[in-house]
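Throughout our pipeline, every protein is held as a single compact record rather than as scattered files. Nothing more is needed to write down the fold, since each code stands for a local backbone conformation. For reference, a complete record is included directly beneath this paragraph.
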Amino acid sequence: MTIDGERKGAAQKVVDQNKITLTVLLDLKEKTMDQYGVRGWIPQSYLVDQKGMLVGKIVGPRNWSSPEVWSCIKELFGLG
């Protein structure tokens, strides 16, 4: 999620450069931030299921390609 007013093109450039395959939300009016109670500017990740329910929150940077992180995500989302 980007929240600092980046336009779609600028956000897409970051996604492309970093080969990000997760869905990225461009939240210019901060409506989603308010909905999920996002506060502060440190790295925060919110894991939301297909029904829009918050199933996990991670504060601080993470190595999203590590086996430990993927194991946690699989468990949270029942991906076996």
About this structure: The longest strand covers residues 54-59.
